Amino acid sequence: MSREQGFTLIELLVGMTILAILMVAIFSFQQNTSDFAGSQNGVAQRLQTINDLSGYLGDQLRAAGGVAPAGTSLPDGTAAGTLASCDRTGTSPCLALLIPVVEDERGATACASTPATEPGRIVGWTLNVYRYVPRTTLEASLKTVASTSLDGAAYGLVEIRMQNPSKPVIAAGSCGTSQPLPDPISAYTAVIGRNLITDGAVVGTDPAFAYDDAKKLVTLRLRTVDLVKNKLTYTPSDRFYTLNVNTRNVK
Question: For residues 77 and 81, what is the distance between their CA atoms, to the nearest angstrom?
Answer without folding.
Answer: 6
